[in-house]
Sequence to fold (315 residues):
Amino acid sequence: MRVILDTDMGMGVPGMEIDDGFALALLVADPAFDLELVTSVNGNVDVETGTYLSVELLDRLRRPDVPVVRGAAAPLVEPERVRSAPDEVRAAFGHRTPVPGFAAAEIARLVLESPGEITLVAIGPLTNVAAAIALDPRVATAIKEIVVMGGVYLGQTNRGRMPGEFNFWVDPHAARAVVRSGATLRLVGLDVTQRVRLTRQHAATMAASGRPFGAFAGDCTVAWIDKMSREFPGDADLADSCAMHDPLAVASITHPELVTWAPAHVDVAVGDEARGVAIADLLTGKDAPEPNATIATAVDVDGFLDYFLTTVATY
Fold:
């Protein structure tokens, strides 16, 4: 299966979010995937950092042949939100350079060269994806499927300062553009991804595997759990585990049976008070609109962890 990964990569700097890195590792380790391109986007980290770390991690995964192309540095309509890499990140990873080009243009080029063949896995803000569709609207119908980790569909964040799930909140206009584009969409939201968790014991198992990536990933996992437990001392889950948001989106492609799916009509709010909130009509009313997406509603936690750990932990 031919795949493009669009990501705001953080794995590689201690204490940064790690699930993007595990999603990339799953795409590399599972022979069902043919990873053709990685594109970076501003999100959990600035796009410069995310680009460096994507190149770095592909080298660790023994896939330096996969090109990385730098993407959007800020949300579509908010250029003032641009950020730069910290000096210490540049010093450590600045030698890792992407291939020339622009992410949106490369996504559009690959998709239009092979209509119906490319699956795009988007696990960061949707800025690059929306820009690719804006460059040529045929991208939306030429792409095989867009699988998104983003949104909350059967719940809410319960956070007034960030009412939408993070990826949608960072660039709500891009998220709205993508869900309205006519592309075939599978949306895996925070309300489901929070249920699949990597524990300290899992991290110890990876670290003891004797495999180079396993040791690195185990250390990154412990550092991330430590950070979460310090920042949210009252949350028992965060003291011992972290959610595998992005790997679940990847796993759902080759193992859709791990997830329960439902058709829905989805839109995204862009106003300040509800910034990034996904509005999902589950099509129960007689006047319901046509579905424009399939959303995840439940997950086989044990089944996912078995697949994930068997595939990645000893890579």
About this structure: The chain has 14 helices and eleven strands. The two ends are 20 Å apart (CA to CA).
